[in-house]
Design goal:
The complex is a heterodimer of chains A (226) and B (346). With 226 residues, chain A is mainly alpha-helical. Helix content of chain A is 77%, strand content 0%. The longest helix of chain A is centred in the last third of the chain and has 31 residues, at 189-219. The radius of gyration of chain A is 20 Å and the shape is globular. Helix content of chain B is 27%, strand content 33%. Chain B is built from 10 helices and 21 strands. Classes of the chains: A mainly alpha (226), B alpha+beta (346).
Amino acid sequence: MDWFPLVNSLRIAGISTIIIFFTGIFAAYYIAKAPKMVKGILDVLLTLPLVLPPTVVGYLLLRVLGPKRLVGAWFLDVFGLKLTMTWWSAIFATVVVIFPLMYRTARGAFESFDETLAYSAQSLGLSNTYIFWRIRMPCCRQGILAGTVLAFARALGEFGATSMIAGYTPGKTATIATTVYQLWRTNNDELAFQWVLCNMAISFAVLLALNLLEKRTSARKPVRGN
Amino acid sequence: MSVSVDIEKRLGSFHLKVKLEAQEETLALLGASGCGKSMTLKCIAGIERPDRGRIVVDGTSVFDSEKGINVSPQQRRVGVVFQNYALFPHMTVRQNIWAGAWRENSKEKRMALVEEAMERFGLTDQARHYPHQLSGGQQQRVALARVLVSAPKLLLLDEPFSALDSQLRFRLEQEVRHVIRQFGKSVLLVSHDRDEVFRLADSIAVMDRGRVEVQGKKQAVFENPQTKAGAIMTGCKNISRLVRGRAGRVYAADWGVELKINDDNRAGYLGIRMHDIVPGNGENAFLFRVMEEVENPFSFVVMLRPEGKEDGVLIGWEVDKETWENMRADTVQVSFPRKSILLLEH
């Protein structure tokens, strides 16, 4: 069995998760503090990919990144780089699709954070960087972890937008999801089933890890004094 | 070590306009909830930014709108103990206090400082506990220890006992009094509890609707609260509108009685504390009907209405148990001594 689709899926999901971990937290942190109006509009825009069909996301991405489109043409011109139909093209698709998962869970966590903890840290003289990484993030750990794991799990399963922007080239852009589709289409039922099992095993393990993490953190979950 | 505040801030329809000054003493901000006392603390700590004015802590301007000074909360050296203590929930007692002691560069000295603080507050056995494993009193001690190791120049206490039940309150009040005395610099205490304020503070500033109405030594403020809000906050329960008639006559309009007082012509209200009313026929004595009696653990509050009146606000009279049990009747004669009547501006 050729393991390339597994490796490719894992690296796409891994890199995408790292990207949305930082951008999602960054967006969540600033939007949680934004005025209501701005918050409402940004919230809708950033959550949209969660409910749009992946093919619509793929279409929109191709309209921007395609070799004859604005951004795609520029990259081709300046760097000689084609943004579509490579293995890492799928990262564009997964990032857009999983970003809302991270953003929404992180924002929920930040909004339930007790700001007096930050005020109190400030008045003790602790720097804003310390407060963010050593107080705000640990207090919101549970929500952020849950968002990260969910996003990773969803990234592993991305199919629609990925197949549009990266296509299916065995050994080049094939992921587990696109491989299963291709194998099924070509009547290779047995191999398709093996990949299905493989995918299910990974997703199962990821979600199990999420549950365990939640249990462990809730055992130490802070109970407020009053 | 002193603090001086003169600030203004608008928040929607609420207008905060506060002028305060404290030397090396404990100044209590006394006021009902929503009067702006917590907002004032936040402005001093640098968490909120006033629209206009100046804040000087220990001779240093930390905020001055004219000179464009707005020192960050980190640089102000103003320690705050919040109502809920704001302990970092993911850190142990030792780690919480350690976080406060960050200014100490040498690791050994910092460690010694933390251990010393834990010992002083009786927290050594709880060093490895998380805040949620502590009682309310222990949480307060951690908050105090943490703020003191950060070596503030001014200490702000925001309703420090409101999260505790009444039994614990009194004991912790002793501890806080001790801490304040040892601290030896300015302390601002926010509270709505007049007894607590009287026991802990040297001076009192009564706040109402975003303004400081009265500021002075605590005895002076309690003796003469000057305003209606001042009287209410210092615990005066009987307050009536004052109406002037001809020839120096003064009516307590809400009670329906005419009183002889030393009028100053500015007051719009008058008040008398429940325990300042005395039985018998002295000055300003009238016959009252007893409408209701409320039993307290050590006294009665008897609700009175002037004989012959059908409406008006009831007057509360607090009388010790023995006296009332000996004189209990449907109508009683009580007097409002002139020296006990408070003249109040709105």
